[in-house]
Specification:
The protein has one helix and 15 strands. With 175 residues, it is mainly beta. The protein folds into three domains: 52 residues, SH3 type barrels (Roll); 60 residues, Nucleic acid-binding proteins (OB fold (Dihydrolipoamide Acetyltransferase, E2P), Beta Barrel), CATH 2.40.50; 57 residues, OB fold (Dihydrolipoamide Acetyltransferase, E2P) (Beta Barrel), CATH 2.40.50. Strand 6 and strand 7 form a beta hairpin. The two termini are 35 Å apart.
């Protein structure tokens, strides 16, 4: 959700409703100012009114890196947008060229990238499993094409494609 806070647009990153003992309830939020990029924690009384700013979600594809920035393309209109690494966040670990993503816009400005629940990536580095080391669910570290290292079963070899959960960063299955 995005709100108008002190005359500026801020994106809510996390919100918790709290009711301490014998006091009135409040909502504790962690939010990021869109203009400055600064994050802060703010308490709102449960009766306080806030102005919600509309957000739009658009299906796009990751195209390429432009220096340290990420360029996304709308597959329907071929419009391109550029986002800084701070806005892309942890999604960069699971994006390869032509990866489908959902970009969130507030006031026509891209603010966040959401990945599908799982992605298929190629293993670029996988050490050999030790013979006889076949106890239940033994894992080894493998490096994927995006540079991230995850734990995968011993039978995974270099060059194979695997499915990875983007929310937890865990191996799911062979692709």
């Amino acid at each position: 959700m995005a709100i108008n806070y002190n005359g500026e647009v801020a994106v809510i990153l996390d919100a918790q409703h709290r009711t301490p003992g014998n006091k009135r309830g409040f909502v504790q939020v962690s939010m990021r100012n869109l203009r400055t990029g600064q994050s802060s924690d703010v308490r709102f009384a449960s009766t306080e009114k806030i102005e919600v700013v509309p957000m739009a979600h658009k299906k796009m594809e990751f195209s390429y890196m432009d220096g340290s920035d990420y360029v996304f393309t709308d597959p329907d209109t071929f419009d391109m947008i550029t986002m800084p690494p701070e806005a892309v966040g942890a999604a960069k670990d699971y994006m390869v060229e032509n990866s489908p993503v959902t970009v969130t816009f507030v006031e026509e400005k891209p603010i966040q990238v959401e990945l599908p629940p799982n992605v298929v990536l190629t293993v670029t580095e996988a050490p050999e499993g030790v013979r006889g080391d076949s106890a239940t669910n033994v894992q080894k570290p493998v490096t994927l094409e995006t540079g991230i290292t995850i734990q995968a079963p011993l039978f995974i070899k270099q060059g194979e494609q695997i499915k990875v959960d983007t929310r937890t960063g865990k191996y799911l299955e062979r692709a």
